[in-house]
């Protein structure tokens, strides 16, 4: 495929390159290019830099901090980041948890969590997998039962991706034991104890 960028898109590419030249920490780029492990501090530092530029949550609606970029601009940004050795953004917060909060969360949840996810103040993860169920979410057995204004969760979870790095867990549990498969499942936000 031969992509011919418009003059505006070429100007945007130059803006991205200038940003990466000036703001991408050399030590982080070196780790990425050499296949070295990035620690939480590296991840958060890069995320804060992107957020300060207003480029952290490019897929979010503008009213929640998104960029409003076209698909071509997103492609240019991702292509240039890869070329420069910028780390990929951990997908759970920006691409998985935040869109669910945007779509289904209360205004209080949006105000509380979206800015913290974008800034890197909190790093979310998904807590889905259970012993003997693997990735079959329809067979989850961890339950949450309402007691007054709170839910009590009982069960076991395994394989929490980036669990040591994260601060906010999206916990998938069964809230209706009379339903089977994917019905009767609910997602909870749970802050990791500090």
Structural features, described:
It contains six helices and five strands; from the N terminus they run ααααααβββββ. It is of the alpha+beta class and 194 residues long. A three-stranded mixed beta sheet has the order 1-4-5, with helices on one face. Strands 2-3 form a two-stranded antiparallel ribbon. The relative contact order is 0.12.
What layout of secondary structure does this protein have?
Blueprint: H1 7-23, H2 26-33, H3 40-53, H4 71-84, H5 91-104, H6 107-119, E1 124-127, E2 143-147, E3 150-154, E4 168-174, E5 185-191
Parallel strand pairs: 1-4
Antiparallel strand pairs: 2-3, 4-5
What's the total number of strands?
5
- Looking at the chains present, what oligomeric state does this protein adopt? single chain
Structural class by SSE content: alpha+beta
Radius of gyration: 19 Å
């Amino acid at each position: 495929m031969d992509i011919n960028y418009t003059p505006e898109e070429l100007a945007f590419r130059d803006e991205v390159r200038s940003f990466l030249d000036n703001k991408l920490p050399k030590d982080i780029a070196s780790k990425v290019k050499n296949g070295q492990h990035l620690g939480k501090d590296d991840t958060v530092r890069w995320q804060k830099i992107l957020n300060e530029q207003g480029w952290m949550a490019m897929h979010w609606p503008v009213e929640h901090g998104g960029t409003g970029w076209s698909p071509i601009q997103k492609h240019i940004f991702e292509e240039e980041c890869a070329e420069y050795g910028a780390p990929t953004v951990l997908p759970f917060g920006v691409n998985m948890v935040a869109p669910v909060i945007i779509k289904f969360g209360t205004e209080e949840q949006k105000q509380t969590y979206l800015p913290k996810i974008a800034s890197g103040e909190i790093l979310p993860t998904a807590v889905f997998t259970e012993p003997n169920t693997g990735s079959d979410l329809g067979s989850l057995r961890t339950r949450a039962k309402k007691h007054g204004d709170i839910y009590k969760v009982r069960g076991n979870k395994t394989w929490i991706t980036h669990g040591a790095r994260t601060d906010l867990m999206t916990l998938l549990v069964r809230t209706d034991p009379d339903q089977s498969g994917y019905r009767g499942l609910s997602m909870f936000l749970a802050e990791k104890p500090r």
